[in-house]
Amino acid sequence: MATSGGAWSWALCYWSIFTQVWIVFAAEEILLDTRSMSTLGGWTTYPVSDRGGWIEVSNINSDGHPVRTYQVCQVRREDQNNWLRAEWIPKRQGRRIYVEIKFSIRECRDIPNVVSCKETFDLYYFESDYPDATDDSPAWNDRTYTKVDRIAADGRFSHVNTEIINTEVRDIGPIFKRGFYLAFQDSGACISLLSVRVYYKVCPTITEHYAIFNKTVTGPSITSLVQAEGQCIPNSEPVGRQPTVQCTGTGEWTLFTGSCRCLPGYEPQRTVAQRCDVPKIFSVLSMVQVKVKSIYGCVCVGLRTTIVAMVTGRFSVKNAEQSS
Ligand SMILES: *[C@@H]1O[C@H](CO)[C@@H](O)[C@H](O)[C@H]1NC(C)=O
């Protein structure tokens, strides 16, 4: 145990690769998730629900929890134009925003006596600094709202084929104002909007090459790279210039450059450099070294410094440059 720990630390400290590709996976910062909301009271419909259009419905999700959903199914009349607008969503630090929609759509040919029937809906957003939208403002049309996409169901349900849930994710942005509204336009489909989850991606805090890289929000586009500077873990120092890393648009860290090394007399312990506990970690190694009385490099020290094994079994830190 002691030997393998020591050998591992040793290997780490002699790390001399200064640039490499390394992927660490993304995290999401949630801005809205209807699955954890007991009410969708801030949502607005046009026309108002008792004149047709979208209606709020209580449902039980697959885990047995009550959830609020919206449904619409106006297939008996032509020219449907039913809008549903989510509450105002502050973007916080988000630049590119992701919208995950779970929904089901009924197959048109499965519905008797349809006058007009669609199997898609349209997703829009509207930027706004404040939650100041009203029942009739912004105007309910595709010129005021910015269209994201027409969303079709991969699977549609029918009387023989129930419980087909579609999941679609779209990304929007960059958003320039403090927040935005999402809107769903129905033109005559039978839709159940089961959940809406809105989030942005971040590269999570990590410690790599003995440097701490803080959580970093992804850039405004999928191809953006956002550079983050690392801070050396306590009791360590940069090797050359400050370590850097790039946060990709999808929330992964990549292209690390530089690294840190422990100060003389310290050894790496995940997120901190600790004072060398030589007798414990190197007990086996040091015995060997003491026997041959040779000088060896310690985990704790970089290329400049070595630890000299003393016959007593105690160690002192010496700077190789000074001693040479
Ligand atoms: C990382 O975050 C901590 C705590 O918020 C802060 O003290 C530190 O300066 C940040 N590091 C960098 C490199 O920005």
Automatic annotation (TrEMBL):
The cellular component terms of Gene Ontology attached to this UniProt record, alphabetical and capped at eight, are:
dendrite; plasma membrane
List, for all copies, the residue spans of the domain called Eph LBD: 28-208
Q: Which GO annotations describe the biological process of this protein? A: axon guidance
Gene Ontology MF: a single term: ATP binding
What is the top-level taxon of the source organism?
Eukaryota
Q: Where in the cell is it found?
A: Membrane
Report the leader peptide range: 1-26
Q: Report if keyword Ubl conjugation is assigned.
A: no
Q: Does the keyword Membrane apply?
A: yes
Give the InterPro entries listed for this entry.
Ephrin_rcpt_lig-bd_dom, Ephrin_rcpt_TKs, Galactose-bd-like_sf
Q: Which Pfam families match?
A: Ephrin_CRD, Ephrin_lbd
Gene3D superfamilies recorded: ephrin a2 ectodomain, Galactose-binding domain-like
Please provide the record's keywords in A-Z order: ATP-binding, Membrane, Nucleotide-binding, Receptor, Signal
Which CDD domains does the entry mention?
EphR_LBD
| Topology relative to the membrane | Single-pass membrane protein
The name this protein goes by in its record: Ephrin type-B receptor 1-like
